[in-house]
């Protein structure tokens, strides 16, 4: 797949997660559902800026692609499962939130691994 499309997708997902995080924070505040919606909001707001940073440093961070995929999809899966539990009363699928959490953990480890790859100088 085209690297430009993947890079643009990272920026798009950053914006969507940021907007979702703010909306979920408002929903948590107004409904009192701070456990599920508050946690979903926190994860979205924590990872949206990282995806923006990956977009900006795409050419210098050698693990930007796997990091973006793991963090972005992991966050969406984790938060989506919590939102589903709140609004639909059931999980997206068994172990969805833990799978998303593992995705986020491995995403952060992929970012840490980039320290061992020389970056391109532009």
TrEMBL record:
The chain crosses the membrane at residues 35-56, 63-83, 95-117. Residues 1-25 form the signal peptide. Keywords: Membrane, Signal, Transmembrane, Transmembrane helix. The keyword Amino-acid biosynthesis does not apply. This is DUF423 domain-containing protein.
